[in-house]
Amino acid sequence: MAKTAGHEAPEAPSPVAGARVSAFVLLCAVGFLGRLSYEMVRSPITSLFAKHLGAPTSVIGLLVAAVTITGIFVKLPSGSLADLFGFRKLMLAGLLVKASAPFLYLLVRSWPPLLAVRFYHGLSTALYAPAASAQVAKFYPKERARRLGTYSAAENAGVVLGPVLGAAVLSWADFSIAFIVSGAIGILALLAILPFPRDAPPAKARQNIRETIHALLAGVRQIAGDRSIRLVSLMEATLYTGVGTLQAYLPLYALSVHVSVGQIGLIFGGKGLASIVSRPLMGGAADRLGRRPFIVAGVALCAAVLVIITFVSGFWLLFGLSAAFGLGTGMVTPSTTGMIGDLTKRGGFGAAMGVFGSLWDIGHATGPLVAGVLIAWLGYHSAFIILAVAIVTALTIFVLGSRDPAFGSK
Asked: How many degrees, rounded to 5, is the angle at CA 137 between CA 155 and CA 66?
């Protein structure tokens, strides 16, 4: 694994190993609560709520993807700002949004205002995620993939329970109660971050806004100009076109084949559970054996699931295929995120995770947008096959590009 020079000390003051462990556990707890709140609303509630409001099928993908579109524009600068001013400040800002956004859904009566709320809700993860991932990467340079895999597994516990809890609430109550429950959990996440160690003073005080912006852009240009980082980000971004498509349209497809709302929540729970179980294991194995084989196998599995899933019906078949997709993402994401850490050579972890997150979100947002148009035009089967072909094409580009000795990561 490539070493990073001179910037491995944590941003927060943690002079002993025990303090680092406590900070890591706290990050995992906050990640779980934040994701639980966020994913309750994301799927299947957003798709079902949009349909309830009368949104057209082609627009539902935009409504689901809006939170991710925010991330495209915000994650990159937020990651660099975390490098300059501290991770805790950015994480706190994201959690403030996460605690407040669910209550705004209570005011929505038609789909255009829903779009505005979704854009605002997207700030929560856009501000929080690059700072949190960069914090973990700086804490544990020698075991990044395993630690990032463990952290993402904690977040994905929320990803598992969020859809299940959201669907369960809808089964006995209504959308308003679901949004209130989501907001209450978001408030708990905000309270949980408060004991996190405060950011260390910056190594050099920024004299004015112009100097700060210059330093920000310099760090972003350095990271974004790295061909290897762009290649890894492209692979993850294309994979996440499939993730976003399933989040937006699998609930509607499942309803069309007579799967109940409660069962839809379990289908998404199965996908998240498979990801939780696999991420730490696959991340640790990738640290030892190399990252490329896990990326290739995981992406191929996800593409296969997209081809098959709309040719089946019934709860158990959809549950099994959804779990297989979760396993595939659990193989890929710890390795791609760890590879970004390997390729970051001058301590700009926030900038690197911001660039990675922004490109990742382009794919995550593009999937539902393109899928909405394709489904309205060609139907579920053809739309999902087209997306699978795009993912396999990106995988081919990644495999060929990563063979270059200049790539610099295993």
From this structure: 45
In a domain, 4, yes or no: no
Tens-digit pLDDT profile for residues 252-284: 999 999 999 999 999 998 998 898 888 888 888
Q: What is the CATH number of the domain that holds 337?
A: 1.20.1250.20
For 203-252, what is each residue's pLDDT tens digit?
A: 554 445 566 566 556 656 655 666 777 788 888 889 999 999 999 999 99
Is the peptide bond between 201 and the residue preceding it cis, with omega within 30 degrees of 0? no
Q: Return all residues near 351 (Cβ < 8 A) that are at least 6 apart.
A: 76, 79, 80, 83, 219, 220, 222, 223
Domain region containing 70 = 17-198+215-405
When divided into structural domains, the chain yields a total of 1
Give pLDDT, residue 405: 59
Q: What pTM value is reported for the model?
A: 0.76
Q: How many residues does the chain have?
A: 410
Instruction: Return d(Cα 336, Cα 229) in angstroms, integer.
Output: 9
C-alpha to C-alpha distance for 402 and 368, rounded to whole angstroms: 28
The answer to whether residue 207 sits within a structural domain is: no
- Cβ pair 99, 187 in contact under 8 A: yes
d(CA 223, CA 113) in angstroms, rounded, equals 36
Count of H-run helices and E-run strands, the chain: 14, 0
Query: Residue 317 belongs to what H/E stretch?
Result: helix 315-343
Cβ neighbours of 278 (radius 10 Å): 25
Q: Which helix (H) or strand (E) holds 169?
A: helix 144-172
Q: DSSP secondary-structure letter at 344?
A: -
Average of per-residue pLDDT across 167-174: 91
Residue type, 257: V
